[in-house]
Amino acid sequence: MLEIKLGTKLALCALSAFIIAAVVFFIVHKAGTLWIDHKFSDPAFVEQQQDLEIQNLQEYITNSQASALDYHVVSNWVKERQLTTLFLYYGDRLIYDSTITYHAGNLASGRLTSPLPWQKTYPLQFSDVEVTAVVSTLARHRFVDQLNIIGLTVFFLTFLLIMLYYVRRKVVYIHQLAQEIKNIESGNLNFPITIKGKDELASLAQDVDKMRHALLKQIIRFQKVRKDRDQFAVHMSHDLRTPVTSLIGYLDIVNQKRCPSKEIQEQYLHKAEEKALQLKNLSENMFKHFLTSMDESKAEDIFCDSAAINLLIDDGLILLESHLFQCLASKYEGEAAFFAIRRTSLQRILDNIFSNLLKYADPAFAIEISCHRGGQGLAISFSNPIRTEKTGAVASAGIGLKSAGEIARQNGGSLHIHKQDGVFQCTLFIPEIP
What we know:
Elements: H1 6-40, H2 43-64, H3 71-81, E1 84-90, E2 93-97, E3 102-103, E4 111-112, E5 122-125, E6 130-137, H4 139-185, H5 200-255, H6 262-289, E7 303-305, H7 306-322, E8 327-330, E9 338-342, H8 343-360, E10 367-373, E11 377-385, H9 399-410, E12 414-420, E13 423-431
Parallel strand pairs: 8-10
Antiparallel strand pairs: 1-2, 1-6, 2-3, 2-4, 5-6, 7-9, 10-11, 11-13, 12-13
Subcellular location: Cell membrane
Main location: membrane
Enzyme class: transferase
C-alpha cells in the first residue's frame, strides 16, 4: 500500500485549496468586471452615480446645518468619499476647490471663474445661501475596489472552508480511533478498528487493528488451552479411577479367597499387575501432557491387532464376571488385521465402557458384546438393560463415555451411544489399516 505522509497530504490539501480558491476568485472577479463594464458603458448610469453623490452631500450638509463658509464640513465629506472631487461656485466666483484645497475667505472674494461648458452643475443648499456645485466622482474605481474586496473575501473563505473541512475529517477520525482504542482498553475486542486513507493515521489504525487481532487470538488460544487443560484433567481423573476400581476389585476377590482355583487366582493377580502398570502409565502421561492436550494419537505406542483387541475384551469380561455379571461375548475371529488405534488409547476406551457397565447395567440380564468387521474397520457393540433401582451412587455426568468418544475421534474412529426403552447400546468403530 502506497502511504502518503500526513504532512505531505496536508501540503497537497493546502495547495488544492489555494488553487480552488484562486479559481473561485478569478470567476467572481471576472463576472464582477463584466458587470461593471456593462454598467459604466451606459451614460445614464454614470450620471446617476453623480446624482447620488450630490444627494449624499446635500444630506450631509443639511444634517450638519453648515453654512457656505463652513469649508471644513465639506472637506470632511470629500475625505470620506475619497475618489470624489468637488467645486463650489457662488455666482461667477469659485469659492471651494477640493483638488487644491482652496476656499475663499468670503463669498465675494472667490476667484472669478465659471464652470466649464461640458460640466454638469447642481444646486446645493447651505443654511445661509444656495451655491452651484460641480461634482466629479470616479465611481468605477470605487466599484472595482469593492469587487476586489469581495473577491478576496470569497478567496479566503473558500480556502479556509476547504482546509477546515479536511482538518475536521482528520479530527473526527482521530476521535473515532480514540473511542475504538478505549473499547480495546475496556476489553471489547470484537469491534474492528476503522481504517481510512493511506497516511500515518491509517497505518496507526492498521497496526492497532493487528494488535487487536493478536490479542483476540491470544485470548481465544488461552481459553482453548484452559478448556483443553480442564477437560484433560477431568478425563484423566476419570481414567485414573477406572483402573484403580478394577485393581481394587481384583485384589478384593483374591483377599476374600473367592477364587475357585489357584490358576484363576494367579490370573487375577496378573490382571491386577496389568492395571497397576496401566495406572502408572496414565499418571506419567497426565504429568507429561497436562498443559498441552489430551491427544493420544501421537503417543509412542504400537497399533492394535485383532489379538490385542480380543485380549482387552477378555480383561473387561473378567472384570464384569468378577462382579457377578453375565456376559454373552462374540469376539473377533476373522483373519489377523491391524487397526488404526494404539493399545493405550483402546484400553482407555474399553475401560471407560466397562466401568459404565459396572455402574449402570442391570445384573439380572446378560450383557451382550459382539465384534463385526466391515466398512473398512471393526465395530465392537455393547448392549444391556439399564439398572432401574436406586443404588445410592452419585448421578453420572457421562464423563467416561465422553472421554472415550473423544479418544476414539482423535484416533480416526467413532463411538455411538443410544438409549431407548431402558436399553443401553454402544458401538465403537475402529478404522482398519490397509
